[in-house]
Amino acid sequence: MATAPSPRKFRDPKTRFNWRVSDFIRKVTTWWLELRARFTGQKYYCHALAGEADYDITINSDLTVSCNCQDYDGTGHLGNLRQNSFEDIFYGPVAQKFRDELAQGKIPIPTCVRCGSFRRLKKNEAPPKPRLPYRGILLENTVRCNVDCVGCARENAANVRVNRQVQMPLAELSQMADLAARLKMERIFYLNLGEPFLSPTICQELPMLRAKNPDAYIRVSTNGILLNTDAKREAALSLTDIQFSVHGISDAMCEKYMIRSSFEKAYAAMRDMVAYRNARGLELPILEWKYLLFNWNDHPEHIARAIEMAKTIKIDILSFWPTSNPFYGISWRYRLGHFNNVGKPSWKGREIDFRVNPKFQAR
């Protein structure tokens, strides 16, 4: 059954305030959607619980399974793989309860209202019959991280991991790689609420994951700081795609969102990974600089400098992502269309692909 929510605790006052506002917005949105459903007959469904989403279904570091990638308080827990099979969990009572409540116009957990898998049904439309996920899954090797992001309640998530297992042992990761292979997963997102390269066995994990899922699109998202040795870079060659989350062009700019981060170390990690891959004549993994847009890093001069720096190290892609978390950091320049001449539109926001006739596309 879903874990009862626990109050979020944050050391940073700005982070604490941001999450109080975020929780309030979720509650108000939940109330509005349920009220609307009551008076209009509007019904909902979950793309992830239908088994059709690229994202969201998550295996956490303690082998619990969540219906979403933002399950900071455990309310999205569907079951535990130590107790039941993935099939039994996905078709089990908690997942079915969530599906039934959505089909009745109710919101089972507050996270639903800000989840990419939340869907509205057309009038008289029935929710899709669920099938086992095959398009994508998230696998969290660790919930530990070397930085604290204002928009991440990672410490709270670590507190609700069963027996506080914040690191998945290599043997269990091997079992999860087998599970992904059995489900014939097209995409494996080797990420969630921690920093993947903080794992002490990352150099064994990535080649093993690739060996068991040779045809899967495997992505890692990292702050880059710990992708700092040739051994880790060699392991990273097993990936299809690496997204470096580096949100600015200086330490001061990055640390407004990523506390204890280092732009200089992250930028060096991107540069060195590009050089390491290119020295072997490889085109994979695709290397992307993921730049979240805030009102402190979105000035035209900042963007022009980021583009220049990306070209200097020969990164494959520079992408600009709008976000509303934290709420006080919203990039109004992006919202007002000032980025319409930057690169090309994509599901991320805007992106610039510096490659010429790329053989592999990021997806």
Describe this structure as you would to a colleague.
The chain has 363 residues and is of the alpha/beta class. 33% of the residues lie in helices and 16% in strands. The protein has helices at residues 13-40, 86-90, 93-103, 154-160, 170-182, 202-212, 230-236, 251-254, 263-278, 300-313, 332-335; strands at 44-46, 58-59, 64-66, 77-80, 118-120, 137-139, 148-149, 187-189, 217-222, 241-245, 258-259, 286-293, 317-322, 344-346, 349-353. The strands form 3 sheets. Strands 4-3-2-6-8-9-10-12-13-15-14 form an 11-stranded mixed β-sheet. It has a two-stranded antiparallel ribbon with strand order 1-5. The longest helix has 28 residues, at 13-40.
